[in-house]
Specification:
two-stranded antiparallel ribbon; mainly alpha; 3 domains
Length: about 300
Amino acid sequence: MDTRGRRRLETGWALQAATFVWTPTESQSPGIQPRESAARPGPQNPPAQHRQRGLRTLQGPLAPFAPQGQRPRQAAGHSCPSKHGGRGECGLTIDRTSQRLRPCAASHVKRQSATPMEYLSLFRMPTPMKITGRSSSITNAFINSIIPVVPPSAEEVKRALEILGMTPETFQCAYCGSVASEWDHLRPLVKDKKPTGYISEIHNLVPSCGKCNQSKGNKEWKTWMLSTAKLSPTARGINDIDERVTRLEAYEKSKAPTKMDFAAIIGSDVWAQHQNNLERVQSLMRESQELAAKINAGVASAYKAL
């Protein structure tokens, strides 16, 4: 094939927007087939003539944005009559540096306006804050602050993972199988705003993901796993729940966790003082919330009067 014939063949390729492949146009002779080689024209390797003169009209979903140099079918909100200094109507062009398609950046191009509902769907108002909304966190802080934390040995961690059917390579959430990010207390430390007597030790801790830890909270682990509580393994459709429950039951029976009577250890007077401090903080939070609500109402009224 002579040079002119090869050039006509290369310039006969057009970009198909739906598949982004180069195909011969109707002007190409049916008997001529493109050469099969690594340098075959494609979206990442367009012929040099296309980079300089533009491509033929696009087909498919990008048809309204045809390359410069052609007369594209116009889309609503993009009926631009400008010729861009003789380079054709608005559309797609090939960046000479990256050899990728990019849209026309002309400042006069008018886009179809979004509806008010589309704008509102992008916005989410921050959740209003309440001082008393942190009361549970305060209660947990008062209890967790007095509970001992006992670091495990490497052998104890290895034994725990073996019972749970894990290795360092398969380390995962014991409840659902997701990536484990923390260790959760299998038996809760706090129940009905009072300490249960359990402490933070390996015999009462299992690998967990954030979703499971947040969803479980202070619930009994088996009841929670089999419930439809938000983000529970059952609610999320975890398939091997029965197997996981069996492994957790074996882990629970492997060694009884430590359980202590804190009030009996430190004495009733000291324990009563600690509980009284908690109630004073909670009472101050309730009082502060009432005052904050009055201040909020006054500020809101002043804003409306602006």
